[in-house]
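Here is an idea for our session: we take a single protein and study its fold together. To get us started, please write out a protein record for me. Once you have written the record down, we can walk along the chain together.
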Amino acid sequence: MQIVPLQTKEKPGTIIISNKDRTLHRVLGKGKAELYQISVGRDGFLWAGTTYVGRKAEWPGWRPPAAMRSRDPSLPDYVPPGPYNPLGARALYLYSGKRDTLYRIHGTNQSETIGAFETSGCFRMTNADVMALFNAVPNGTKVIVY
C-alpha cells in the first residue's frame, strides 16, 4: 500500500477500483488516497458500477457460485477456511440494494497473480493488503468500479 495523490469528489472512506489499471484506491480526503495493486476480472468477466460493502468476513469459507461450477464442474461445493481457500484471509462482500452481487474484494492463496486480469469478476488483493483494508472500512462503504 502507498499513499498517493488523488483528486476526487468522493467522501473519505470510499473505495474506487480501476479495472484498466488494476488498482484499488481508498479515499483519505484532502487529495490523498491509499493505493493497492489488485487482480481484476479476466476477459469477459470485467464489470463496472457502484456497490457497497454489505458484509465482511474473516477467514471466509468459499462456495463457488452455480455459474462458476457450470463452467468448471471440477470445483468443489465448498472450500473451508485455510491455506487452500481462494478467498484468503478476508472478504468484503459487495451488495447492490439488499442483494449480494456475488462479487468480493478478497485475499488470495495465489499472491503471484496480483496485478493480473485473472478473476471471475472479484477483486483479489494480497492477504496483508486485504486485512488492512478490512480493518479500515465499515459495512456500508461505497465502492465504485470503472
